[in-house]
Specification:
- By secondary structure, this protein is α+β, with helices and mostly antiparallel strands.
- It has a single domain, classed as Aminopeptidase (3-Layer(aba) Sandwich).
- It is about 25% helix and about 35% strand.
- Strands 1-2-3-4-5-6-8-7 form an 8-stranded mixed sheet, with helices on one face.
Length: about 180
């Protein structure tokens, strides 16, 4: 399945994305904010991710709705959503490669996935979390209409054993901004 917004496409991951994923996920800015991404990130990690899992973190499951963000057919980032067992709430995560940051790619991708979640999946609440210091990710969420709900203390476990707070954002039907 693909979701489209002009030149931006959310599409399934493919084998041809392995080398790109390895390069993108070895960016220290990615692993700084997303502790479940292995560091260093290898071809084996990329193949496991594309196959639906993570070699380095057995507790981490790839979201059931996992997409490559592509612009003009070239990968630019990743976005995914897990849906809770009662099928009313989705949890979204995203990142964009260094070469695509600052161009609105992530905002467009989040808006597109959020619209699909409400319109097609008929979800009633969407959530996402960011590190309190990840201002860029928080701006993306706010541009789409997500509202900051609060800080979850000692929420994310990093590979070095540190527990970091997370900021919770949510979006309800009717709040999505164009």
């Amino acid at each position: 399945m693909e979701l489209r917004d002009g030149d931006l496409v959310l599409r399934p991951w493919i084998e041809e994305d392995v080398a790109w994923l390895v390069t993108a996920c070895n960016d220290p800015e990615i692993t700084r904010w997303i502790p479940v991404i292995p560091s260093p990130y290898t071809e084996e990690d990329a193949r496991a991710f594309i196959g639906g899992g993570s070699r380095s973190s057995p507790e981490y499951a790839v979201p059931e709705h996992s997409f490559a963000i592509a612009v003009d057919e070239s990968p630019a980032g990743a976005i995914g959503m897990s849906v809770n067992s009662m099928n009313y709430r989705g949890r979204i995560g995203y990142w964009v490669a260094a070469s695509s940051r600052g161009a609105g790619v992530c905002t467009r991708a989040l808006r597109l996935l959020s619209r699909w979640a409400f319109d097609d999946l008929e979800l009633r609440r969407l959530e996402l979390i960011t590190d309190p210091d990840n201002v860029a990710s928080q701006r993306v969420a706010e541009k789409v209409g997500y509202r900051r709900e609060g800080v979850m203390r000692s929420h994310l476990l990093h590979p070095d054993g540190r527990l970091r707070d997370s900021v919770l954002f949510s979006l309800l039907p009717g709040e999505l901004r164009d």
